[in-house]
Amino acid sequence: MEQTNKYEEWYFQSDYDLETAEYMLQSERNIYCIFMCHLSLEKALKGLYRKHTNEIPPKLHNLLYFVNRLNLVPTENDLQFIGMINSLSITTRYPEDLRKMITTFSTIQVSEILQQTKSVQQWIKQQ
How does residue 105 score in pLDDT terms, banded at 50, 70 and 90? Predict the structure, then answer.
């Protein structure tokens, strides 16, 4: 793959993770759906980082770091969403009490998270 197209691999992985999130929602694995939503946005942001800087993105999971580093200006609603899903990254990755966490998010809530993730991911890829 050419050096200049490396960002496309990040975007491909972001799409793949978003599709995986859909499967997690269908099987009611809500925590993993949220985790995959975060991962999808992380990879989209890393792809954009690679596209704009031609540098390998740092191995960080903090979505807000990339938003700030890339000087992105999402809508207030999208920024709040990115902050919310960013804060769920660690708790969905390493839940202290999985049984409790499973009951925390309804399928309706997670479906809304998935839909907003799709919207934000598309916005990122258009930047």
Answer: very high
The count of domains in the chain is: 1
Task: State the CB neighbour count (10 A cutoff) for residue 11.
Answer: 19
**pLDDT band, very low/low/confident/very high, at 23 (cuts 50, 70, 90):** very high
Q: CATH number of the domain that 87 lies in?
A: 1.20.120.330
Whole-model pTM: value is 0.94
Task: Average the pLDDT over 45-50 and give the result.
Answer: 98
Write out the residue range of the structural domain in which residue 19 sits.
3-125
Exposure string (b/e) for 86-120, b if CB count within 10 Å is 16 or more?
A: bebbeebeeeeeeeebeeebeeeebeebbebbeeb
Taking the C-alpha atoms of residue 65 and residue 70, their distance in angstroms, rounded to an integer, is 8
Phi, psi of 66 (to 5 degrees): -70, -40
